[in-house]
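ugh ok fine here u go
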Amino acid sequence: MSVSYYGPGDLSSGFVGFRVHVNFGGKPRQHWYSTKKVGEQSDSNPYFRMDNLRAQVKDAELLAESALYQYTVFTTQNHPTANPYRGVGVHALTMDIKEASKRYRGKERWEPMFNVWWSENGKRRHRAFTFYNYLYSEAWREAVLLWGNVHEILQKDIDRLLENPPSPERFKELRRHLNENHDSEVHELIPVSALSPVFRETRENLARESANTAHQVDAGVAVAHQDIAAWFERETGAQ
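structure:
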């Protein structure tokens, strides 16, 4: 509740009545409803009750406006505390490259990933979608769907995010940033091989397209050979 009542003598300005005050977007929104001239300052006075109701209605309007503002910020801006190069344009969904907790085949392994964050029962929760477990587009889709579910995001905003995944190139930028700041953000330099799973889907798509192109060329050559043979038969048969 953001409605305050000031009775006679409460404020040095002499104001008597209701004050509505809601602060969002770095700006205070306040409205004053004077009851100084309505007479009895109690709910027994219908004019007093009317001004009280007007203040309550304005309070509800401002709180709704504040909620919409907070939602818009959440779904269109990086969190102000998000580390550099991690943001994807919304709160609670980020990119990262971390060293795996276990070694694989006796070697360290760096895992690029999308992270989803939320609070549950007073505790901070987190789930990572790595590109060792998912293709790039799959990881983005699963991360966005979880983000939308745990934060009760509107479907139109979920769809907008699904249609605009960050470029895989962003992980190159993130790796470069982490290596340039490895003393403060990571303890070791991240090898270029860490980016391999990021571009796995791209490589597979290129290989598929190359195979399709080769197949089309082979089919085209076969058709051309058939056309030449048919022409030759026509020509020789006519002699």
